[in-house]
Amino acid sequence: MAKTILTVDDSPSIRQMVSFTLKSAGYEVTEAVDGQDGLDKAKLKSFNLVFTDQNMPRMDGITLIKSLRALPQYKATPILMLTTEAGEAMKTQGRAAGATGWLVKPFDPNKLLEVVKKVIG
Amino acid sequence: MSIDMGQFYQTFFDESAERLEEMESLLLSMDIEAPDIEELNAIFRAAHSIKGGSGTFGFTDMTEVTHVLENLLDRLRKGEMTPSEPLTDVFLEAVDVLKAQLNGHIRGEPTAPESKDAVCRKLLEFSETFDGSHSSANPEIDNDIEASEAIYRIEIQPAKFLLKQPAILETMIEELTRQGKLETLQQPVIKGKKKKTDKSTPWVFRLTTSTSAKTLQETLEFLIPPKDFSIEHVVDVTHPAPVSDDDLGFGFFDDLPLPPPDASTDESVETVTTGAPSAVEDTGFGFFEELPLVPAAEAPASRPSGKPKLPQGASKTAASSGNGDSSIRVSVERVDQLINLVGELVITQAMLAQTGAALDPVTFERLHAGLAQLERNTRDLQESVMSIRMMPISFVFSRFPRVVRDLAGKLNKQVELVTVGETTELDKGLIEKIADPLTHLVRNSLDHGIEQPDVRIDAGKPAKGTITLSASHQGGNIVIQVSDDGGGLNRDKILDKARERGLAVSEGMSDNEVWMLIFEPGFSTAEVVTDVSGRGVGMDVVKRNITEMGGSVGISSEAGQGTSITIRLPLTLAILDGMTVGLGDSLYVIPLNTIVETLQPQAQDIKTVTGEGRMVHVRGEYLPVIALHNVFNLATDITDPCDGVLVLIEAEGKKAALFVDALVGQQQVVIKSLETNFRKVVGVSGATIMGDGTVALILDVPTLIKLGQ
Amino acid sequence: MAVNPVEAAEHSADTPIGEYLTFTLGSEEYGIEILKVQEIRGYDAVTRIANTPDFIKGVINLRGTIVPIVDLRVKFNLGTVEYNEFTVVIILNLGGRTVGIVVDGVSDVITLLTSQVRGVPDLVASIDTQYLTGLGTVEGRMLILVDIERLMSSQEMALIDTLDQ
């Protein structure tokens, strides 16, 4: 069975790219347009991995990570922050919220796959 | 695996264009005194999003601008900076630069870097003004605008004068130490008994500083000739460069127990093992703590059993709604083809209705019911098909906040723009054509309508003027209005000007007729010709453009209260409100927007002028009578205007009386081109299909008026 | 591009050149490439266009498009010009433009062989030789083959805007 990935980003082009890249590699991808949408979708179905952007309308990435960690089924799910901000503060926040790791935008599709493979094989 | 990034460009272009529009309108509506934090966040997100996308898709010029922009916006939303008009101006300028860059990428011709550099410099200046600690930094920017701190490799040749005067070197080291953290990597080797310095090994320092390379260069040039040293920019410290190939671009915060088969690839990732990840050697990705991962394959099965099970349908719905608003792109040609087909269906339906009407309603009851149903369905179908081409007028209105802001600033006027009815829809073709005339009207209102603040206060009005742009549907028309609460039109001034221009005017003219004079070619009431509203070319062009769209323009004005210009447009370019007239056994359609009035003349109103044909006397005016049967060489029994009808037509400021046999009726007609299969016919602008399936020609009024002179 | 049957004939003796729709104008029988013919219909009410030559009868509504109608009988002074239920209009599709021509009658669709076609002598038909592509012989009758596209787009037909207008 294909591994399932939820990608949360308010940018349609990034979403399209991430989704296309992961689907090409055989993953099953669900897209969400912001943190709230991501949380709603995460509740409907469980995923093997969650990618989330940080800056989004309605709910930001950090809040999404915290909310997901509060759900029993997401206690152990790898969550990667997909963000342009690799600053110390953001990492500290991400870490505190329960993120597994981060991936800096801009990134190329191969980098994305590399990271995903490391996390869920 | 290679993925063609080109396939995502279109989405990025669309998205960025939308974000830039959003940024612009948010910036324009931002309250400088008390900015809404949510709005600032939204502006920040827009910049941030474009930065992320442009970096990913390789449009680095946009990344540069959005990066600087984002930093400023971030400080703004965190309250570290206060908004101001000049700052908003620079933001808007940055938006313009980004738009130009985006359009450049869309066309595949990247824009020159000058405007980008200029706007980045302006943005950075703001950043420095507000940030004391950065005030010493050189305002000049490198290509690397990212670096608030960078590492430089400085190499100094052991020239003779340096060796002889160690003080210079000491001063230099002292100077560099003041700039940042200096490390000595290499020194000239001192060899032999004579303690001779080996001139082949230079001094090499590593300096970590926020000072720009240019300033460093200048500092060193003070002490050492430029040929004897070099400064090499090694790396930026504060932010990982977004387009650096060396950067791994991702990272994990803590040790990651990697899936066993992939363990060998571990070496490619520099993993930070402590809880404090080092920023300098950031690999761009990382893990916060030990990943509680079970072997991947088992992951789904090992999930807590409490996970809600959902029917297949539910998750499908969720997944499909994730693609945002669902829409498809269809070429305009295909839509137009559909519209044409429906147009034919409408005609067929009309023919059936006409035929059916002749049949006995009792005997053919079911046929009549069916025909009535067909009529309703056809009408609904036509409406929905037409609506595909419809776009909200906000596409045009959205440009005006900017136009008004820029222009009001230039003219030192205070103006508020109010828009009403932005959701009113009209045909895409009209949207494209109405933008220029509307822009002209708005600029005109601002330039000539709204008074200077002091004049307004003297007149007992608020210092800030208001321009209202409104759109609404009225019957089969779109009505667009540009109103201002300015000084209103000056009747005497317009009349004087008209006389000066040799136009036929009289004191007895109604206000309305006087106002319409401003649409005459070459008319301008501005006391000073400004670069804002042009040189009197414009209002006539505005009127001509609107008439070409099948619309009409009207004006009302009240001294001291303001002026209002009303544009009426058909819902679509393909439909025309027409008056059908009869001539012999033919029917012709006259566009309603060119008709002033119709009348049946009395014999005494018709004058025959030798060599100039007949004239008709209407309300103090003599208008040439154009007999349509003469123009078209058609046989008709009615040759005396008193037996027929005169239709007073007006185009391009000229009037004439068109003599036809009879008026048949008023109706909306679908415009068909004659030129698709035939050629242009003088005096005819197109054709239409009547209810009985026959073709009627639509008259080209401006040409007919010219023929009559 | 219309195949020139004469040139084709020089190459091989007896291969089909193509299908032709034949029609009569007075006593002459003409043939046009069937591929140029869209449909054949009766003569409907036509809307006259002012200030056009008399052979341009006007325009009709052909399923929503405006199509000009040319009466070739008037143009070439042939046959009896009458308009009744037997009057035939051939709707042609010529390079994207649709035009109707009025003729005396439509006879047949025939396949011509190269051996049946020869060159055009001068002064054989009412239509100028420059618009003819050959003469065919079918069962003893002479068939004048017309390059209808060239004819209809010629300046004398006044159907198309010319540059000097």
From TrEMBL, chain A:
**The entry's keywords:** Phosphoprotein
The record, for SUPFAM superfamilies, names: CheY-like (SSF52172)
Identify one Pfam family in the record.
Answer: Response_reg
Q: Which positions make up the signal peptide?
A: none
Response regulatory domain spans which residues? Answer: 4-120
Q: Which Gene3D superfamilies match?
A: 3.40.50.2300
Has the keyword Transmembrane helix been applied to this entry? no
Sequence positions bearing 4-aspartylphosphate: 53
Q: Which GO terms describe its biological process?
A: phosphorelay signal transduction system
Q: What is this protein called?
A: Two-component system, chemotaxis family, response regulator CheY
Origin species, per record, is Novimethylophilus kurashikiensis
From TrEMBL, chain B:
**Which stretches make up the HPt domain?**
1-105
GO BP annotations, alphabetical order = chemotaxis
- PTM sites of type Phosphohistidine: 48
| Reactions accelerated catalytically | ATP + protein L-histidine = ADP + protein N-phospho-L-histidine
Gene Ontology cellular-component terms for this entry are: cytoplasm
| Domain Histidine kinase residues, every copy | 371-573
Tell me the superkingdom of the source.
Bacteria
One GO term in the molecular function aspect is: ATP binding
Which InterPro entries does this one have? Answer: Bact_Chemotaxis_CheA, CheA-like_dim, CheA-like_homodim_sf, CheW-like_dom_sf, CheW-lke_dom, HATPase_C_sf, HATPase_dom, His_kinase_dom
Q: What class of enzyme is it?
A: transferase
Keywords carried by this UniProt record:
ATP-binding, Chemotaxis, Kinase, Nucleotide-binding, Phosphoprotein, Transferase, Two-component regulatory system
State its Enzyme Commission number(s).
2.7.13.3
Q: Which Gene3D superfamilies match?
A: Histidine kinase CheA-like, homodimeric domain (1.10.287.560), Histidine kinase-like ATPase, C-terminal domain (3.30.565.10), HPT domain (1.20.120.160), SH3 Domains (2.30.30.40)
Biased composition regions of type Polar residues, renumbered to the chain: 314-326
Any one Pfam family here would be Hpt
* Record's signal peptide: none
Disordered: region residues: 298-326
State the protein's purpose: Involved in the transmission of sensory signals from the chemoreceptors to the flagellar motors. CheA is autophosphorylated; it can transfer its phosphate group to either CheB or CheY.
Q: What is this protein called?
A: Chemotaxis protein CheA
What taxonomic lineage is listed for the species of origin?
Bacteria, Pseudomonadati, Pseudomonadota, Betaproteobacteria, Nitrosomonadales
TrEMBL record, chain C:
Q: Does the keyword Flavoprotein apply?
A: no
Q: Which InterPro entries match?
A: CheW, CheW-like_dom_sf, CheW-lke_dom
Subcellular location(s): the record lists: Cytoplasm
User: Which Gene3D superfamilies does the record match to this protein?
Assistant: CheA-289, Domain 4, SH3 Domains
One biological process GO term for this chain?
Answer: signal transduction
Supply the alphabetized keyword list. Answer: Chemotaxis, Cytoplasm
Supply one GO CC term from the record. cytosol
Instruction: Give the superkingdom in one word.
Output: Bacteria
Ranges where the CheW-like domain occurs: 17-157
Keyword Cytoplasm listed: yes
The molecule here is called: Chemotaxis protein CheW
Q: Which organism is it from?
A: Novimethylophilus kurashikiensis
Question: Gene name on record?
Answer: cheW
